[in-house]
């Protein structure tokens, strides 16, 4: 049981759960049958687990160097070997469940997860650190809509990409100093805290804006949701500037994504 708890803690359970839940909601909203929705949920859950676990596995030495007590491999709650085995196993399950939805949608999701692994494997250290987030979050809704039998519009991919890059900036901000101390210099590190804190909410609000602009109607509910998304994005930027160590900006970025997914689900995953 201790091993299981340690592996779960190393999987980044909160974002894993949020992304999986949002994926299922969007798939159902896009018209996916129950069986397909279950496969989609399993594929996304396994994929997110593999990404989170591979992050803690590959970053184990760096996390120990800066004494990250929030990391199970640093506290000794679980071994690097166990996290590595779980990451690889989750990736295999992800590939099987993804392709069970069909060759095209499955390939889109495998590519999305592979892109996230590429970030963990080294792209996070470069100026192209934003690319895996744009690719992975852009392909995820495309996978969901395609698995449901639809054709994802370019605006849907753009929405995912904008939200992904915004989330990347918000997620890295609390770790800028620790990252710099261990040789990681991705895009947020090169831009600096202030510029990244401003750019993150702009991208998040832009992603939500693409959804609102692409919806067929502008009801009071849609406009209210747009206002909520804008407020959450703004809050993410303000907190990032005033509380550098806080992880709230990433949680707020997930809130923006949740609002966008809710709007997309009610529109059947379609944008004009």
TrEMBL record:
Localization annotation: Membrane
Segment forming the signal sequence: none
Pfam families the record matches: UbiA
Membrane protein topology class: Multi-pass membrane protein
GO MF: transferase activity, transferring alkyl or aryl (other than methyl) groups
InterPro entries for the chain: UbiA_prenyltransferase (IPR000537), UbiA_sf (IPR044878)
GO cellular component: membrane
Transmembrane segments: 106-123, 130-149, 155-174, 195-215, 221-241, 248-267
Keywords from the named record: Membrane, Transmembrane, Transmembrane helix
Domain of life: Bacteria
Chief location bin: membrane
Protein name in the entry: Ubiquinone biosynthesis protein UbiA
Record organism: Actinotalea fermentans
